Amino acid sequence: MNFKLTEMQEAVRSSARTYAQKYVLPRAEEIEQAESYPEDLFRTMAEMGLLGIPYPEAHGGLEAGYLSAALALEEIGRVSASAATLLCVCYLALDALHLYGNEKQLEQYLAPGIAGEYRGSFAFTEPGTGSDPKQLTTIARRVDGKWHLSGTKRFISNASYEGPMVVFAREEGTDTCTGFIIQKFCKGYSLSTPWEKASLHGSHVYDVFLDDVEVGEEDVLGEHGQGFDILIATTAYGKLAFSAVFAGTMGGSYDMAVKYAQEKLHRGKPIAKFPTIQSRIAQIAAHVLAAKMCLYKAASDADEYRDDIRKIQCSTALIKGYISDLAVETNVMALNIHGAYGVTDEYKVERMVRDSLVAPNIEGSADIQRLIAGGYILRSQDSYFEW
Hints:
The chain has helices at residues 7-24, 28-33, 39-47, 65-77, 81-100, 103-114, 227-263, 275-304, 309-337, 349-356, 366-379, and strands spanning 121-123, 139-143, 146-157, 164-171, 177-183, 189-191, 205-215, 220-221, 265-266, 269-270. It has 387 residues and is α+β, with helices and mostly antiparallel strands.
């Protein structure tokens, strides 16, 4: 069993760590308070190649794979889940385009997205559904050779920035779900005010209102009726990305807990002297290590089984369900190391706790992910646990 990273993976992790520690960490609170992710930080993210980690060199990417992307997201999530979530959302749109875009669409969107010329969005969720295409109420009507989209999308990230949005709609009179590419702020596009959330304050989500938005046949992503396949494939990688973010928050809270235990004094000596503190730190460390191993296994699967999306879906669903719940438990343990100070703004471990609360409910609920993984494992002849 070899856990040694390649030279490229080490370089990507080092670059992401530099971005996180040098650029993001000093401005983490600004990110939490800002109305949007600072443009200069986004530009730096693009210039350092972080937007293109898993994508082909031919389109401006690093072609470094999804394990490299997971390592980068983990490093950024260690200091700011909001910053890492921005990168996740950009990946969602780019993954959909990379996996299903035709040559013209790839030329038009992939390289500019990797270069940071826009912040893309991915819009499936609606007020009445989060995963069932048969419940979609956004309708695509065919009128004079054009498609007209009308409906409401909910909890959409990056919706307030210019750029393309991958939108899923049901073709009128059918149960067929199709993906379309629209331009944000086109005619008929409008937004709600951002949702007030308990966490991820630096990553805003909106309701998106589509009122007879017109797109051409050239804006269909993939094939007609392929929308659910696009959703399944794209979110399989999305689950991996968000798992990396929340594994990162666990690493961040671990850092804070160890530092506090070593510096907080009781009768002139650090509280690290207490067996209960030592035991809790060991538990937190074990949880962080377990999350990392599961994350890296799933990311390696994503790189190895590119032609077997169902296997990737099983792998990423399994670790998404596991890491989501583990992140909440672990970050609360780290907060408790701080005692009453843990719930104050002065000690930022409370932000790690708040940010992790969304983990079991974003990119598919943790319970549903376990059902997806369990069903695959029981139907398949493969042994998922082979390493």
